[in-house]
Structures are given as C-alpha cells and as structure tokens.
Amino acid sequence: MPTTKRRQLLANALCAAALSTTTISACSATPASDAIIEPVASIPALNARARRRGMFYGAAVNHEALIKDPATMARVDAECGMVVGEASFKWEAVHPAANRYDFSQSDALLAWATKHEIRTRGHALVWHEANPEWLTSTINSGNAEKLLTDHIKTVAGRYAKRLAHWDVVNEALDDVPGRQPLGLRDTIWLRALGPAYLDIAFHATAAADPQALRVLNDYGTDYTIPWQERKRAAMLELLSTLMHRGVPIQAVGLQAHLDAAEITLDQKVLSRFVADIASMGLKVIVTELDVRDDRLPADIPSRDIAVADHAKAWLDAVLPNPAVLGVLTWGLSDRHSWLNTKFPRPDGLRQRPLPLDEELNRKKLWSALAT
Question: How far is CA 118 from CA 55, 73, 142, 156, in A?
Fold first, then answer.
C-alpha cells in the first residue's frame, strides 16, 4: 500500500466511529453512513479498489451458490479477487470415508475461480467441526498423527501451487483460555496429540504445498469484553510459542464476525493487537468479515448504516498496518449468509450483514469496504 494511502487510513482509524469507546474531536474521516452507494455497473469494484491499496478483496462461496445461483456468482466474479469455499475443502466434504476422498466440491470451486482468474483459499485442514463420523469415532493417540499427515499430504498436495493460502488450523483457541495448555480448545486433535498437533499440521502443509501461505485462523479477538481480552492474550502467547518452536506459520486470520450492537470496539486496542502480531514477522488477513444485526431495530436504512459504520470502525483500526494483506467477507450477498440460520432475528426479518443485499444491490457496507 502506498505510504500516503496508509497515512490516510491511519488518520481515519483515529477518528472513532459512533460505536468506538474512544472519543476524538475534529475528526475529518467520512463515516460509511455518509458514503454514496455506487451503482452495480460502476467500476472499479471492491477488488480493484483494494489492489490500489496493495491489498485484495474476496468472499466466501458456498457450493449451492456455485451450482445454482449464477447471478450471485456473476457478482462474485465482478467484485472479488479471491474466493474461499465455505465448506468445500473441509474434512466432511473431501474425506467422507476412511478409504475415500471426494474432491468434487473443491475441484468445482477451483475450476470456476481459475476460469475467472480469481485466486482461491483453502479452508480448513484442521478444525474441531465438520469432521466425518468415521474420524471422530476412530481417532486415538496411536493413529492420530498418521491420519492428520496423510490427510494433509493428500488434500494440500492435490492443490499444490494452485491455492493462495491454507487455513491450516481453524479456531484452535478456546473461548475460555486457561482450561487447556496454551489456551487451546479441547478437540479430538488436542486429546490425541496434545499441543504438538499444530506443529504437525503446519509442517505437513509446508511439505505438501510450500507455496501456499500458511494461516492460523480464529475468531473472538475484536472487542474489549473480558473473554475476548483473554483470547487476544492467548493468541499472542500461542503465536510466540509456535514461532519459538520453529513452526512454519506465516499468517494469522482474523475472522471478524462482528456484531453491530456491540459497543466495546476499541480501535486502539485492536490496532495494537494487529501490531503485536506483525511484530513477530507474521502477516494478517481478514478472513470472514460479516456484521450481525439481529439485535438492531427492524428499520432497514438504520440497520444498514449501523452495520456499515461498525465495520468501518473495525477496518480503520486494522487496515493501516502494512502486515494486512486483504479482506474477505463471509459471503458477498445477504441471500447466502449463515447468520440467518445461526442467529435469526427475533422479529423474523432477514439479516443484512454483507456488502450486497438479497437482490445483489450494493449497500452501505459495500461503501465502507470501498473507502
């Protein structure tokens, strides 16, 4: 990113949005709520704008949208420089039986992205969810390392030199750090291998595909609420330990599943957290950004403003750091957001957490990402 642009972003970051805990006067930044929503036909789109800053923009794609929603995929093609499969690379999808792999979903996404000259992220080689029953019922301390390394060798090896990144380990940290060593989550891998499972996974990925950026991806490091304060500290301790052990981790993914009703977004704390990660020589990627609105009033214009302003306050704290490579949202259009199932609004209305609405029109959040 050019120095002048980073200085402007840093200036914007110091101008707290309405939901920030910091009060700053004489602020010259333009709130996302004041930004003009550009028509779909206008250019440049989000990735082109991001490239001007030396970054990229991308979005998650679910398999149903890929095969059944050409209108959404046309917008993905127009707006994105990178895609990530919501589930197409996970164990449950690619390794459904002990002696069988199924790459139909992951191959389909990569083929689409290659055709449209869009880069692809792999997500995720190790996770505590989306594991097939055969794995959870058979794993033990005697076979776990072979199961893990064989899986990574097969999956990451298949896509060697064709993926930009791998989320090697997803959501390794517990929401209540301290219950397990290094604040790690109690998973089948931790129980079978101890904390060394991270070392094994990152080394195996580096061997299978040395060109893909190797990422530790997690959520819950965004706000100054107590459990997230503890999780930020646990993340830094874990990263320091892994680096000291020579684990070939290269980047941290900040999921950024945000909540527009949360009032504890402290830009200074967040900016310092990103700087602490960068000081270890690691890159940072915003991997899954979306903004819940289930605790906001029903009025759509006010919801859209609150969502956009909240995202902008978060981004203004994170993006100025030169270690940040880019931003992906967890979906491009509201029509495919997981939040409507996971956190349904009590009034029955659909959430509006993504840059495009269900009719694929650009919203205030699009403008927040574009500025």
Answer: 14, 12, 41, 19
C-alpha closest to that of 121 among 131, 109, 133: 109
Nearest CA to 123 among 210, 208, 215? 215
Name the superfamily (CATH) of residues 3-18+38-370: Glycosidases (3.20.20.80)
State yes or no: cis peptide before 124, omega within 30 of 0: yes
| CA-to-CA separations, 169 to 78, 253, 308, in angstroms, rounded | 30, 10, 30
Give the closest residue to 238 by CA, choosing from 247, 228, 227: 247
Torsion from C-alpha of 286, 289, 295, 301, nearest 10 degrees: 120
Give yes or no for a cis peptide into 44 (omega within 30° of 0).
yes
- Spatial separation of the C-alpha atoms in residues 175 and 31, rounded to whole Å: 32
8 A C-beta contact, residue 318 and residue 369: no
- Read off the DSSP letter of residue 323: T
The CA distances from residue 38 to 144, 229, 304, in Å, are 51, 37, 15
Place of tokens 């064709």: 162
DSSP strands (E only) in the chain: 56-61, 82-85, 119-126, 165-170, 213-218, 251-254, 257-259, 283-292, 324-329
Residue 338 contacts by C-beta under 8 Å, 6 or more apart in sequence?
86, 330, 331
Judge whether 368 and 346 are in contact, CB under 8 Å: no
Which residues are paired to 319 by β-bridges? Answer: none
Nearest CA among 311, 331, 308 for reference residue 319: 311
User: 247-274 pLDDT, tens per residue?
Assistant: 999 999 999 999 999 999 999 999 999 9
Query: Can you give the three-state secondary structure of 227-262, one letter per residue?
Result: HHHHHHHHHHHHHHHHHHCCCCCCEEEECCEEECCC
Cβ proximity of 258 and 288 under 8 Å:
no
8 A C-beta contact, residue 237 and residue 174: no
Tell me the per-residue pLDDT of 187-233, one tens digit each, with 9 for 90 and over: 999 999 999 999 999 999 999 999 999 999 999 999 999 999 999 99
